[in-house]
Amino acid sequence: MEAAAPRRTRALAAVAGACVLGALALSRVASAPKDAVVALSAASQPKETAAALSAAFGGDTDAEGCYTDAGYSWCAASSSCVRSWESSCDWVRSSRAAADATLSLVFALPVGDDHVAALEAEVAAVSDPASKRYGRHRSVAELDAYRADAHPEWATHASRILSYLDVHGKQFGEAVAYGSADEAAKRGFLRAEVSVASAEELLGGEYYEFARTDGQTATRCVGCSLPENLRSAAAFVEPTSRFPNLRRKSAPGAPLATDGKYGVTPGILRDEYGLSGAYPSLTNRSEHYVVVTAFDGEFASPADATKFYKDYAPDLASSGYAPTIEGPNRGNRPGAEANLDVQYASAVSGGVPLEVWSFAGMSPDRPAINEPFLEFVLYMNGVDHAPSVVSTSYGEDEGSTSDAYAVRVQYEFGLAALRGMSLIF
Question: Assign residue 398 a region: left if phi > 0, alpha if psi is -120 to 50, beta otherwise?
């Protein structure tokens, strides 16, 4: 989980929708020449910085001359070298974004290598049966206290960002709505609701509309970065230049036997994992509960779940068992992914209370594109009673996320572990 070791930081990097605020956020290029750093925060690899890139990362290039060690690859559509977390070859820029459109900018306050190492040690202590502190998981209040003790600098970072927003709002005559400094210092994130025009002034770039051949669109910024004196106050801000690269993932494995008629049923899975027999009497949410997340416009149908239980989990059907749905849900427009996740998770776990956490939209700027993993993480670490298991059937290619975003969101995953949650992706 150390920021300086990208291969380690990718372990749980199932995240989407942000950008690095300049290459200074990547500790492995902190000592690179100034012109190399500028090039790394651009959407393509300028020819005039080739010597600097070669000096900073070595001379390895691909057939098109892109510096692969710096993360660049050739994009035929734009005839340029791009980095996948800064610019997508699948997306084509069109018109400028509407100046009066509203953006929800999220500023993530930074964490350092020492914070990551301390959290790793703390999680190990409460997760190892051999530890004297095994099972001493945190409540929401205790987690807030842990973050306050670990990150006294967050209060200063939040105040600096809020002061910048205040000055900007007065200068351009726009009221900027944002979260409180106390909340940002406690949770490590700050949100500001601003117009596109205001965001361009704040971040020094230009927002454009981008489109993909499948009809998806996104509003992203070209040339965005925080002022130099604020870059140490935020690990990243979104939405800026990151493009959606989301996909549902399935891991191939050895085929299971089927019943010859219905395929792999919950009963077969329960047998496979040694869960045969009567369902446990865990019907009280105060003991345990399981969460299945829903994104990407996928909804679960309670009516379909009821029929599924009658066919494949009669004990659940006779008990009146039903999942609880938190967030928006169009049960009359169910999706195959959400239905499958909910029905099998509840039937295989056998009576353990199950909640569906449904998140509207897919990114702060364009509610029909990217999954709000950040919204999910912030919600998860703020619930009063932590679930035992959180299952998410979505992910993103490791190479498509920036190191700064991966490290920061994985830190939140670590905090979830400190509360006693098991996260399954």
Answer: alpha
The single-letter code of the amino acid at 65 is G
Query: Is residue 322 within 8 Å of residue 300, measured between CB atoms?
Result: no
pLDDT in tens, 42-67: 333 444 444 454 444 455 777 777 87
Cα(133)–Cα(124) distance, integer angstroms: 9
Q: CA gyration radius for the chain?
A: 23
What pLDDT does 63 receive? Answer: 78
Residue 34: pLDDT band (50, 70, 90) is very low
**How far apart are the C-alpha atoms of 412 and 184, rounded to whole Å?**
14
- Amino acid 133: pLDDT: 94
Q: Which of 409, 76, 73, 40 is nearest to 241 (CA)?
A: 40
The rounded distance, in Å, linking the Cα atoms of 416 and 423 is 8
Distance, CA of 341 to CA of 366 (rounded, Å): 25
Q: Tens of pLDDT along 59-110? A: 577 777 787 777 777 776 566 777 765 666 777 888 999 998 888 788 999 9
Q: Is the previous residue joined to 239 through a cis bond, with omega within 30 degrees of 0? A: yes
Single-letter amino acid, residue 117? A
What percent of the chain is modeled with pLDDT above 70?
66
Burial degree of 104 (CB within 10 A; 0-12, 13-18, 19+):
middle
Dihedral sign, Cα of residue 123, residue 124, residue 125, residue 128 = positive
Indicate the residue type of 190.
L
Percent helix, strand and coil across the chain, each to the nearest 5 = 40, 15, 45
Q: What is the pTM of this model?
A: 0.71
Kindly list the strands in the beta sheet with 422-424, ordered across the sheet, starting from the edge strand earlier in the chain: 324-326, 354-358, 290-294, 389-391, 422-424
For 382-418, the pLDDT digits (tens) are 899 999 999 988 766 666 667 788 888 889 999 999 9
Cβ atoms 211, 92 nearer than 8 A = yes
Q: Residue 64 and residue 79: Cα distance in Å, rounded?
A: 10
Q: What are 289's two structure tokens? A: 């509960």
Is 355 within 8 Å of 291 (Cβ atoms)?
yes
Would you tell me the crossing angle of helices 403-418 and 140-150 to the nearest 10 degrees? 130
Q: In the Cβ-directed half-sphere of 117, how many Cα atoms lie within 13 Å?
A: 7
The predicted structure's pLDDT at residue 126 = 95
Which is nearest to 407 in space by CA: 240, 243, 228, 188? 188
| Alpha carbon distance 103, 198 (integer Å) | 9
CA-closest candidate to residue 337, choices 392, 256, 396, 414: 392
